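Much of what follows relies on a compact textual record of a protein's fold. The record below shows the convention in full:
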Amino acid sequence: MAKNHKPALGIDLGGTNMQIGVVSPDFKLLGSAKRKTKAAEGTSAVLDRIVEGALEAIANAKLSIRDIACLGLGAPGAVDPDQGVVLEAVNLRWKNTPAAELLAKKLGVPVFLDNDVNVAVYGENRLGAGKGSRHMLGVWVGTGIGGGLILNGELFYGHFMTAGEIGHMIALPNNPPGHRSLEHNCSRTAVVDQIVRLIKSNRKSRITELCNGDFDDIKSKMVAKAFEDGDEVTREVVLHAAELLGIEIAGVVTLLSLERVVLGGGLTEAIGKPFVDLVDKSVKNFAFPDRCKNVKIVASQLEDNAGVYGAAMIALERLERK
């Protein structure tokens, strides 16, 4: 990468939160900002919050928009990076949304789009837990479940430019509609829903106390606290989710013979090593052949900043090629 570039904006747009940062060409975080996504308010409102957060991050870096070379946006769901279009983002309720074009008009800088987990995986591969790995899967467990692939040292998109959507793979085909995919069963949203269903069926859980009875306000850190305290309901649900997640990851490792898997996202980060260890155990049980059981299952090192760094790096690289 050329060293004469201006800094880039990196934005990790999730279904619940967005992380925004100004990243220098030598990978220093110069300024940052956070916003709630609030997807229910509509596309226009989400884009306006992205712009507000971007300008705040730029101000925190003591720069102006004129100092910014480009913007990299990681959006959840299936995207077309070449066209800058979000094809389908369930958590945002977006379909065929030209996000890159819309943001470029609002901010006046080139905008480069990719999948949110792709950019986080790229950040981890270049700077974090996946550094040095040429064949790697990243799985982010949060509001939904997203994935990204590094093959032969580069992001892999596939023929339809949507590779990595592990969360939408069918895990339990005999379940009722809406409960069959990995995301339907193992995301933070799914874990919380399952815990709440068990509580409402008269199971006792610390979660009720931790959320003050407001089941709409259960956060990943509450699940982590209940899990740590040995809450039976929470442990039952999390152990099931981790095993199922590991089975699906093992299938990808078996298919592609991957050397490393990086786990990230809000639920992974909240529970931490115990969750990673549970997934690791499941992967080792189901990966084939035996040599594939040597795959390393590790936690994200960059955490919230993985997507910010990755999006900014991808944007700078694409700008240079352009």
User: Anything to note?
Assistant: The first strand starts at residue 8 and ends at 13. The chain has two domains: 8-122+304-321, 133-300. The mean pLDDT is 95.
